[in-house]
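Reopening closed ticket. The problem is back. First fold of the pair:
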Amino acid sequence: MRFVLNKVGLLALTLWAAITLNFLLPRLMPGSPADAALAKLAQNGPVSPATKAAVEAQLGVPTGSMWEQYLSYLGSVARFDFGVSYTFFPQSVAGLVTAALPWTIILVGLVTIIAFIFGTLLGVLAAWKRGTWLDTLPTVGGTFASAFPYFWTALLLVFFLGYVGGWFPTSGAFSRSATPEFSLAFVGDALYHAILPATTILITSLGGWILGMRSTMINTLGEDYVTFAEANGLRPRTVALRYAARNAILPNLTSFGLALGAVVGGSLLVERVFAYPGVGYLLYTAVTNQDYPLMQALFLIITISVLLANFIVDILYGILDPRTRR
């Protein structure tokens, strides 16, 4: 219990630091969103004081002391109120993020979990059957597949399976004629559109999990407790999974925590290639259009997701290896 409370305290402290930095960094930068908007207006002629005041009021330029702004900002974060998007005015930032977040979590999150499970199991198998074709096939195949960048694999799939073959849609999360609703027809249409981006992420990430697990598994197989378990006549599957794999998975679990935290950020290039309406595509749009409120909200959400994922991994570490509790 003390171990969990320490981790919760560390999470709360880190979360406060992340929120505070997200408040300070935009204010330490030269200029403001209002200055950027006024600079665009100034290209057509001088900007009057009335126009400047209207732009500042429209964009919600903060007023008052830094401490007052900070307290107001904490209240806004607690209410999930990040203002209005400049790009999609007058839509709220919270509404845009809420609409994009499920698409990224379902696509990138599920594929990341599937790739981790299959990659870890294949890595265990490759290390246990080292020197056989069960080692060579996943190792060489995973190395070859992971050598290609995300966007290159996405472009290949779009060209050959989308344009040339015509088997799968090349963009979007659902058909233009479909109405977003919780129905079997819409879910099937969304899954059909997610096949190519999901395959891209799976192909390019599977090799890393295989090679990482295989490497640590081989080192663990040389430990004395594994030799002792084999000498006691335990079944090979029991030795491989309960003795070797349980300890070898810890470094892979750390990488999985980082990958899971990055899920909310989305696979920006993959979502860009497929015009998939996830957080990655929304972040790209915000950066290219200098949409500061939207960028600030997305950066904060991505940071929080990474912290929560690391917290979960720390708890799992304590369960898998009780020594870490000390």
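Second fold of the pair, where the issue appears:
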Amino acid sequence: MRFKKSIPNLITLGNLYCGFLSIGFAANGHFKNAAILIIIGMMLDSMDGRLARILNADSTLGKELDSLADIVTFGVAPSFLIYYTYFYQFGLLGMAIAGLFPLFGAFRLARFNISSNKTSINYFVGVPITAAGGILAVLTLFNYHIPNIVIAVIFTALCFLMVSKLRIPSLKEVPLPKYGTIVTIFFGCLLFVIYKGTYGKFPYLLYFAVPTYIFYLCYQLLKKIKNR
């Protein structure tokens, strides 16, 4: 029973580890691998909370762990990736600019954690860091095809949108991942797999994670239909 209640936390730790591995891959020049690890982290992030509710294993520890994992996988890791693929040409200035992303993301997470309306099923206040980090990861899959000015504009917009008071529609009641993950998972993974010259070079973790995640989504959907 104790192990059963630990499953959501293990999923969250897997998310955190994906963030760490992404930073390592980015530092060694394997940018597409680093981006896919962030996307896999998004899969895990969308599963841990739902599993905690299914297993009746919600805990304060799990919630704090989730925030710590998010800031690494969707804050620090994307900022490293965006630096190594785009902002490196500006030297220390580029590194300083890339470092702003986790700062905005951390502020957004902290505000969410103390917000009295964070349990709303209708909307998020500001773009979730998961979605923002995932968008940057997908963009870096095509770092040779997107102009630097476009990336700079999107990067800046995401930073401010995370800390904005803009209400973003929530999909919490839908048996699918958090807002922004749907686009990132299906388009990001599909485009990566068919991207010329990259198929087969990524560790087999990708080919295990995607089918497992799709099975999980199907299970959630069938469960939702059955309950109705």
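Update: turned out to be a display glitch only; the data is intact. The chain has nine helices and two strands. The first strand starts at residue 123 and ends at 125. Please close again.
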